[in-house]
């Protein structure tokens, strides 16, 4: 448990409360390089120290949650499913940053009074996420926010206009699938390294596939991917796989 909040335009995390702070949980994966002693960072892309970021789990009125697949051209976590999110600008409020990132990545603008929000937790993220992939190059603390919209999924979907520079596909996932994703925690105790490359097993009541909307040169197209793709664990070595990020699984568990 930690206290967090903005102080003098910067995001502050403390083990004691301070004026305006909120109490939440801070977590990192068991295989996090910082936890294993690999704290020395290489090229951090011009961002010294730890960078504050925010990510938004947008829940439609029907209970479905929006996830996006990161573009294959991105340097960090390409082809990985995550909520919309990005860096927190100096002095920017958490919700303001989350709404900005949501709009920039998906084209969705939420008007005041049409949603509620809550703080889900903080996640320590390094890339690469494990030392077997090389020394860390960037270091973030991601604040996950849960936003519940009063609008149905169909209305939100109709306004989607994802940025092809950042997003290659979007999906509205039902609670049953989301709960199964959250249960496949990377690095969970008793699973060896926890960095397994298999597609995962899942209960029979889950659908075999999930519907997604992919971006193409001609616009949008509806497609299907195996549900097992979203239940994969991070691979221990070799190229990364299309999967849900470890931090997103943490946030879904909190959600």
* Helix content range: 10-25%
N-C termini distance: 17 Å
Low-confidence stretches: 42-47, 189-200
Which whole number gives the mean pLDDT? 88
Count of the domains: 1
Based on CA atoms alone, the radius of gyration comes out at 18 Å
Shape: globular
Largest sheet: 10 strands, mixed
CATH fold annotation: Nucleoside Triphosphate Pyrophosphohydrolase
CATH superfamily: Nucleoside Triphosphate Pyrophosphohydrolase
The percent range for strand residues is 25-35%
How many β-strands, per DSSP?
13
Report the CATH architecture.
Alpha-Beta Complex
Order of helices and strands: EEEEEEEEHEEHEHEEHH
Number of helices: 5
Structural class given helices, strands, pairing? alpha+beta
The CATH class, by name, is Alpha Beta
Write a structural description.
With 255 residues, this protein is of the alpha+beta class. It has a single domain (27-32, 49-184, 205-253), classed as Nucleoside Triphosphate Pyrophosphohydrolase (Alpha-Beta Complex), CATH 3.90.79.10. Helix content is 16%, strand content 33%. It has 5 helices and 13 strands. The strands form 2 sheets. Strands 4, 5, 6, 7, 8, 9, 10, 11, 12 and 13 form a 10-stranded mixed beta sheet that branches. A 3-stranded antiparallel beta sheet has the order 2-1-3, with no helix packed on it. Strand 1 and strand 2 (10-14) form a beta hairpin. The longest helix has 13 residues, at 94-106. Mean pLDDT is 88; it is low at 42-47 and 189-200.
């Amino acid at each position: 448990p930690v206290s967090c909040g903005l102080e003098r335009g910067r995001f502050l995390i403390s083990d004691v409360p301070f004026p305006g702070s909120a109490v939440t949980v801070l977590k990192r994966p068991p295989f996090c390089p910082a936890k294993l002693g690999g704290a020395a960072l290489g090229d951090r892309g011009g961002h010294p120290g730890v960078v504050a970021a925010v990510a938004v789990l947008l829940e439609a009125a029907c209970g479905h949650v929006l996830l996006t697949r990161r573009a294959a051209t991105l340097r960090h976590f390409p082809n990985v499913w995550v909520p919309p999110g990005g860096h927190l600008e100096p002095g920017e409020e958490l919700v303001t940053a989350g709404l900005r990132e949501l709009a920039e990545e998906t084209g969705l603008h939420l008007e005041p009074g049409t949603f509620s929000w809550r703080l889900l937790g903080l996640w320590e993220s390094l890339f690469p996420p494990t030392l077997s992939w090389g020394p860390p190059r960037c270091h973030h603390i991601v604040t996950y926010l849960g936003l519940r919209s009063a609008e149905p999924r169909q209305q939100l979907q109709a306004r989607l206009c994802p940025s092809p520079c950042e997003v290659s596909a979007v999906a509205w996932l039902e609670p049953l699938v989301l709960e199964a994703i959250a249960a496949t925690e990377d690095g969970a105790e008793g699973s060896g390294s926890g960095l397994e490359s298999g597609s995962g097993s899942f209960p029979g009541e889950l659908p075999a596939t999930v519907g997604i909307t992919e971006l193409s040169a001609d616009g949008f197209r509806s497609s299907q991917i195996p549900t097992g793709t979203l239940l994969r664990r991070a691979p221990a070595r070799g190229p990364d796989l299309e999967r849900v990020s470890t931090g997103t699984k943490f946030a879904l568990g909190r959600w």
